[in-house]
Prior knowledge:
Elements: E1 2-7, H1 17-28, E2 32-37, H2 64-76, H3 78-90, H4 94-116, E3 121-125, H5 129-141, E4 145-149, H6 152-156, H7 160-166, E5 169-172, H8 175-185, E6 193-195, E7 220-225, H9 234-246, E8 251-256, H10 262-271, E9 278-282, H11 286-294, E10 300-301, H12 318-325
Parallel strand pairs: 1-2, 1-3, 3-4, 4-5, 5-6, 7-8, 7-10, 8-9
Helix pairs in contact: 2-4, 3-4, 4-5
Amino acid sequence: MKIAYITAQAPFGRGETFVTEEMLAVVKLGNEILIVPRNPSKEIFHDFGTQLLDKTIRLPLFNGRIFLAFLKATFIKPRLWKVLAKILFTSRSPEILVKNLAVVPKAVFISDLLYQAKIDHIHAHWGSTTSTMAYIVSQLTGIPWSFTLHRWDISENNMLKEKAKTAKFIRVISKSGYNEVLGIIGNEYKNKCFILHMGVDTTKFSKEGEKTDKRDKDSFIIATPANLLEVKGHKYLIEAIETLRQKGYNIKCYLFGDGPLRNDLEKTVNELNLGNIIIFKGAIPHNQLLELYANNEVDCVILPSIVMDKGEHEGIPVSLMEAMAFK
């Protein structure tokens, strides 16, 4: 089967490692894939992403070629106007509408590429603008499509009912997400929606007894592999570390990841004089993180995620699955 994947950045960028792993697994099963990242970055941050470079169409979100192709399509593809009308009337807020319209030109451009490549099926990760792109391509070409919903992209509700109407199926990664989706799209499309959890390839992980031990034996080492976002709950971890320090525990906590809260979190850590205990490591390549686990340099992995006021929450974090795979 020839499958087109539409991603946010994968195999580029620092996120979506779980998407890259999934695509590699799909190839391993004998399928042919073609990847279209919405916003490909300049770097391959995670080494295993290089395995997919020859299967990737690397285009910016917008350039002259894309604009001219879109302009031409407005004259020769009357179906495009129907698609634009659907986007206009089913985007539930001005913000979502603007985001959707921003990806229309690129979606129109790649629709011809995917049709010429004889793609059998299109799959998008995330219910936001990546699935909007897949929706547009499918509407213009007739290629069947589907999408995976994770967490924040459910509560955002970017045209989810319209997308459910046209998609072959909707994959949700958790039971709570499944229930939330049904509350949005209704029972009419329940038969299209199913739960398929994210997972990890356990054959890649070191087995017990094969690991070396390189950790600082004087301290209990905690690792938190997560972007520095409010939903990840880092501030509660910092509070817990302060409590443990006051009780005399000898610990260190490494925060792996970057994000908009870094300055605020660093300020809190410094105010509590925890700078020698909580260390900001920044984002590191995926293989380096797994090597820390394999070398037994970490005693405990913590992800103190929270449910936000507007309902944003974690799905089932792959970062915890990976840590648990190292026994």
